[in-house]
Task: structure prediction
Amino acid sequence: MSELKVPDYRIRLFLSVDLTGSTAFKSKHDTQLWRAAFREFYGRFPKSYEDSFQKKCTHIGGMSPQEKSATPKVWKTIGDEILFVNRVYSVTHLGAYVAAFSETLHTFGEFIGRTYAGLNAKGNGWIAAFPSPNKSIAVSHTAGEDPFAGVHGLETEEFELEVDENPKNFDFLGKGIDGGFRISRNSTVDTFTISPALAYLLTEAASNKGLTKFELGFNFEEMQSFKGVLDGSPCPIISIDTMRSKEERELREMEASLLGRPSMVGNLDDFKGYLEKFIQLRRVEMPSLKLSHGQDDLPPPEHYEDFVAQWNTEKETVAQQDKNQTDASLEDGDVSKDESLPDVDDLSRAISGNPEN
Result:
């Protein structure tokens, strides 16, 4: 068996954008018009997002060439939704993706609304850890192969690197994925919703904006319960402001003042402390991600160490099975003379040119 490498701990960022108002738009207009609108959505939004990301990277000093070249990747499209997924290597890298996505929600929303009245865009984001507790799965594979791995039924680093590079060929399973999709129901054209774990890392980015250049603020609203998430325990609704209208923003601030609550999170340290406590008590995946590429990687979480121990045990089992199969094959073929091979005297006669001699 060739040497297999256990997959490294990695965090992937998932971002989704929905074209809002599309159902009503299709019912009001002819096919030619709404097809044109969707072409703009599928073509313009990913390109605008990539351009925005590249611009962010030029203004951030603490990013590696690898991070800057890891442009946003489309995972898949589902009707009026585009999903992106990227591995993130640092909090600074993560912040660049999120800031660029938020900016694109704003600019694209303004464009599509002006061009096709009634349409807009809203976003949602979350993170998930791999190869544990979430799993990558190949959506197209040869019959008999394990879709969760590439070799011998084991997840491998080679397999996960392929997922990083070509996410369109894979799907993702796990509580981190399910929870991310659930919170998306709270997103609006003015609020880009994010998961608590993503918010936790982004508070680190916001607290170090001299390095990360991340300057977005957070809205912290009411708690809600989601089916199948956190065993029904309430989850904080956290979002990043993408409000287009200055007047709407002023109105919201007035409403918040009258209700006696801040319109945005003020004290980042208190907010980060709350999120850390929430993640621990509700057993949410606690992400481990260094601030910038120049720093050493942080120790991976305990659940990854447990995964590695189990992986090594399974690797030994697979190696023993391969050895047993090899030994059995050798025993089956162990005969005194293999009649499929020519006799030594036959070879000599053939070489001398005297086959009968």
